Amino acid sequence: MTENxxxxxxxxxxxxxxxxxxGGGLEICLVHRPKYDDWSHPKGKLKRTEDALTGxxxxxxxxxxxRCAPGPRLSEARYFVNGRAKKVSxxxxxxxxxxxxxxxxxxxIAWLPPAAARDRLTQPRDRELIDEFLTTLRxx
Length: 140
Hints:
By secondary structure, the protein is of the alpha+beta class. It has a single domain, classed as Nucleoside Triphosphate Pyrophosphohydrolase (Alpha-Beta Complex), CATH 3.90.79. It has three helices and seven strands. Strands 1, 2, 3, 4, 5, 6 and 7 form a seven-stranded mixed β-sheet that branches. A hairpin with a 2-residue loop joins strand 5 and strand 6 (84-98). Helix 2 runs antiparallel to helix 3. The protein is globular. The N and C termini lie far apart (37 Å).
């Protein structure tokens, strides 16, 4: 199956991070989606005329309740879902403020140290984003 620009599902999200309120260590926010019973980075489909960064920030706030400051752009993930190509653009983003409220789409979030977040993620492609994010932090 090949990608066609007209049929690619465009989405965006963030590796959302913060300094832990207890001790200041780095924590990454993961979302749990009950529909798929999986753990992932906050992300979602873009609106028709929305640019990827705007969509990523909107999706983070919708799914986690947190606003964030975008940082470096990370890799794109490309994969197929239900026979359609999907392209997800990602950024590193530091949580600035907000509060989580469960929804039907995301029923829980978890703030975890990077190694624990990496282990909890369902998809290997999401684990690679954590590795890239950590490298970006060390070498801005």
